[in-house]
Amino acid sequence: MPYPSVDAPYGLLPVNLIGGQVFAGSTRMIPITANSATAIFFGDVVELNSDGTLAKETGTNAATPVGVFLGCSYTDPTFGKTFRQFYPGSVNVSDITAFVADDPDLLFKVAVVSSGTTISFVNRTAVGNNAVLVQNAGSTASGNSRVAISSTTATTNTFPVRIIDVVPETAIAGQPGSFTEVIVAWNAGMHQYRNPTGV
């Protein structure tokens, strides 16, 4: 079966850990403040607030991630215990719990865009370079993020992610060495657990 074409960004998806270690699906449960207004989608980059609750990370050229959002649960006043692909925002209950892939060594698959949600590519020469996040509104239909990375990469050490590899299946026909998806890691010192100054 051919690899599906990438027609839109989908956030950051965990694939494995540095060194080829398996990602077993482990997540940390982190609370979201009752009635928090900002929606958070599956694959969105998230950060810790100073009170230990979770928020969507909105940074592009710089970020302080704790991980990636992989869904949530809460007690809905009508339907009871509810599990959702995304947090819709403005849910006024006290037990909202996010599931976060928070391992600092995680590697993620992510789409490359020229801007917004327009799919683009990088060449294999981008491996080892750093990239900025492109923040887009998530999809309420699928519950998935639309975060991507920019096709413009650099050695700038404050950019939030490092390109570790390309996804070979997304090589563009007729453009040898060009790929629409890559594998990224958090850049050195960006992850909140490894930031010596704390949250």
Written overview of the protein:
It is a single chain. The protein folds into 2 domains: 96 residues, no CATH class; 82 residues, no CATH class. Strands 1, 8, 9, 11, 12, 13, 14 and 16 form an 8-stranded mixed β-sheet that branches. Strands 2, 3, 4, 5, 6 and 7 form a 6-stranded antiparallel β-sheet that branches. A two-stranded antiparallel sheet has the order 10-15. It contains no helices and 16 strands. The chain is an all-beta fold. A hairpin with a 3-residue loop joins strand 5 and strand 6.
Number of domains: 2
Low-confidence stretches are none
The overall pLDDT, averaged over residues, is 94
Provide the succession of SSEs.
EEEEEEEEEEEEEEEE
Count the E strands: 16
Structural class: mainly beta
| SS summary, helix count | 0
Let me know the largest β-sheet: 8 strands, mixed
Shape: globular
Rg from Cα = 17 Å
What is the percentage of strand-forming residues? 35-45%
Distance between the termini: 45 Å
Helix content: under 10%
Looking at the chains present, what oligomeric state does this protein adopt? Answer: single chain
List the helices and strands and how they pair.
Blueprint: E1 13-17, E2 28-31, E3 45-48, E4 54-56, E5 67-76, E6 80-84, E7 97-101, E8 106-115, E9 118-119, E10 122-123, E11 130-131, E12 133-134, E13 148-150, E14 161-166, E15 178-179, E16 181-186
Parallel strand pairs: 8-13
Antiparallel strand pairs: 1-8, 2-7, 3-4, 3-5, 5-6, 5-7, 8-9, 8-16, 10-15, 11-14, 12-13, 14-16
